[in-house]
Design brief:
The chain is of the alpha/beta class. Helix content is 51%, strand content 16%. The relative contact order is 0.12.
């Protein structure tokens, strides 16, 4: 099992190496001292939030899942489905309403979420934050560690208050992973980070030997750091048998199914007998207004989606043409050096752009599903 994990880690690093080599930030996540297996089990768990009136709103129910030692899992689902709720339940920031959360002895969680940036002491410096958790460690060692997160030289003595969101995120991550967690629970860790830091984070997570659950809209980060996926949908969580391309197809099919179900429901209601004519007219008028409101919300997203799909098809077609050229052994002769560099550079740029377009496509599809759920 360890050998398989290492093979996957090396494969992830191959995707990252060309970009990460140019990065000036070199994040290092300490390896965990122990790795129980399994680390954490949810057994028929229901969870949710306490509302202002004292009642509890159940968000997820009947969740039965296991986090294995060395498991690297990406969490998929549309906005509002409950991805953050799942992460908060795993780290006990939210209570289990029903069922059982079973944690192994030796479990050490490192939890990152955006709200933790506000919990940093604005009147302290990065170095002071580090000294609070490790007062016995030599300052030179802490400076070196902070340097790997981009705090070099005198920046370790800058106050946190005026820092950018990206700087605060880097500091929060540095504090979290310093404790050598064997399970990282990361909720949108790349928000606010610049491209260089995102690549450094991806490289560090790819090399990390512990377990990880990752919520992220950054598809590149997901591709290069996780080995499998869970999906949050319809008030529960289940293993997703596929990759991000399969998820893209799942979203499209799910949207079509929901719209077909709505048409069937309208037809069934129209065929019902015994409903007063006035009520039926009012009902049809309400349904028409709802359809118009939903269509108005969907229209600009669908327009953008069509543009993205067209550009994706063009990029994929050109990449296929370049693949044929790259496969030609004669391309690697000295006489065709300039052409080879041009073709490889174009292919690399198209690959990068296709990835960006796919990320945009997924974001638009998730937004469309959120709208459909709103008007369901």
């Amino acid at each position: 099992k360890q050998a398989q994990s290492r093979v996957k880690a090396l494969a992830r690093m191959e995707k990252l190496a060309p970009i990460h080599a140019e990065s000036g930030i070199d994040i290092r996540i300490p390896e965990p001292d122990s790795m129980p297996d399994p680390l954490l089990v949810l057994d028929d768990v229901s969870t949710g939030y306490q509302q202002a009136d004292g009642t509890t709103r159940e968000v997820l129910k009947n969740v039965t899942l296991m986090v294995r030692g060395g498991g690297r899992i990406g969490i998929l689902g549309v906005n509002g489905a409950g991805k953050s709720t799942l992460i908060k339940t795993l780290c006990e920031e939210l209570p289990v309403l029903n069922g059982r959360r079973n944690a192994s002895r030796g479990l050490e969680i490192g939890y990152f979420a955006q709200h933790q940036l506000d919990m940093l002491d604005a009147a302290s410096t990065p170095l002071q934050h580090m000294l609070r958790i490790e007062p016995q460690t030599r300052e030179v060692e802490l400076r070196s560690y902070l340097g790997s997160f981009g705090f070099s030289g005198d920046t370790v003595n800058n106050l946190v208050g005026p820092m950018s969101g990206g700087e605060k995120a880097r500091l929060a991550l540095a504090l979290i992973v310093r404790r050598k967690p064997n399970l990282l629970l990361l909720d949108e860790p790349s928000n606010h980070l610049d491209v260089e830091t995102r690549e450094a984070l991806a490289a560090a997570l790819a090399e990390f030997g512990g377990s990880m659950l990752l919520v992220s809209h950054d598809r590149h980060l997901l591709r290069t750091t996780v080995d499998s996926f869970w999906i949050v949908a319809d008030g529960t969580v289940s293993e997703f048998d596929g990759d991000l391309e399969d998820y893209r197809q799942w979203l499209a099919e799910r949207g079509s199914q929901q719209r077909a179900q709505e048409r069937d429901n309208r037809a069934a209601q129209a065929g019902q007998q015994g409903t007063p004519a006035v009520d039926r007219r009012a009902q049809r008028r309400q349904e028409a207004e709802t359809r118009q409101q939903r269509a108005a919300k969907r229209r600009p997203l669908e327009k953008n989606l069509s543009k993205v799909e067209t550009e994706m098809e063009r990029a994929a077609a050109r990449m296929a043409e370049l693949d044929v050229i790259i496969a030609d052994a004669d391309l690697y002769s000295d006489e065709r050096r300039d052409e080879r560099l041009r073709v490889l550079n174009e292919h690399g740029e198209l690959t990068r752009r296709h990835g960006e377009l796919e990320e945009e496509w997924l974001t638009l599809q998730e937004a469309l599903e959120t709208i459909d759920q709103e008007f369901a």
